[in-house]
Amino acid sequence: MSEEPPEPEELPEAAAAALPPLPLPTAFDAGSLERWFALLDPVRRSARARGTWRAYAVDLAHFADWCAPTGRSPLPATPGTITDYLTDHVESLSVATLRRRLAAIAVAHGVAGVPSPTHDERVPLVWRGLRRVHGPARPPRTVGAVEVRELLVLVAPLRDTVLDHRDRALLVMGFAGALRRSELSALDVADVAVAPERLLVTVRAAGSRPARVVELPRGRRVETCPVRSWRAWAGAARLVDGAALRRTTRGGRSLRPERLGDRGVAEVVKRRALAVGLDPGSLSGHSLRAGFVTAASRAGVPAVSIARQTGHRSAAALAACVREDRPFPTNPAAHVGL
């Protein structure tokens, strides 16, 4: 997949059981299901990122569409319906996608306060068989990384318009802070403290991740300096409070008060890539984060220091961000006397 998978922690079972369930949804299209999930109490909703709830709505809508022609109920569903759905889609969907569909179905049943069919012994049995036969067939897709040389190319055409200042701040701060697109979107003006020669940015992560403070030092180049990029954007936009990154009117001539969403962050990366002749299909909002991790790893920065900046909680998730299309000077095979 192109983005890092979310890493939410589940609520304790006792706490979850004490919260009232939602009534069953009246419609099963993705938009209606996203609004249904939005009715959750803040405690349960904050346990997962906004993008995760959106993905669950899309996944559950797909399952409901498959159920409709045969009159099967998507919620509550039976174990037989789940196993039939899995075997019917194993040739057309990846194991990773089916795993997420199962998660969406299980979560939806929990939200509605009904037993999940995924807990029936037949479903894990079929799932293990499908994984054994089909699991290795399709490797996960990864997006390209924006390292410093690509970042320089992206920001080179930017000038003195409000839109250009916003996009430069987004690209430079997103790279230097190794921020997820949801974290960039969630930034408020109050989260960015300007100190001598650096920015101190409070990153309020989605889901159950704790907030962290990342330091963005003054850059050697004006065009990729986080401090100067932020100051120029904050001055041009006359930011005082509220969202740090905001939407603009069509054409970017003036600001709108609404927060730039996480999809908007990805669109900025793709639009700026297209403008300088890079392939927008190979890049996403995650490319800035992957580029930072790759560049820092290539420079020999210890993994613990990189993880302190990125907020990664596991070595495996951190390693998944590294793109190895160029040789690493610290490759251990070069130091064992071959």
From TrEMBL:
Residues 138-338 form the Tyr recombinase domain. The keyword Signal does not apply. The keyword Electron transport does not apply. It holds the Pfam family Phage_integrase. GO terms for molecular function: DNA binding. PROSITE patterns: CB, TYR_RECOMBINASE. Keywords: DNA recombination, DNA-binding. InterPro entries: CB, DNA_brk_join_enz, Integrase-like_cat_sf, Integrase_catalytic, Integrase_recombinase_N, Phage_Integrase-like_Recomb. Residues 27-113 form the Core-binding (CB) domain. One of its GO terms (biological process) is DNA recombination. This is Site-specific recombinase XerD. It comes from Kineococcus radiotolerans.
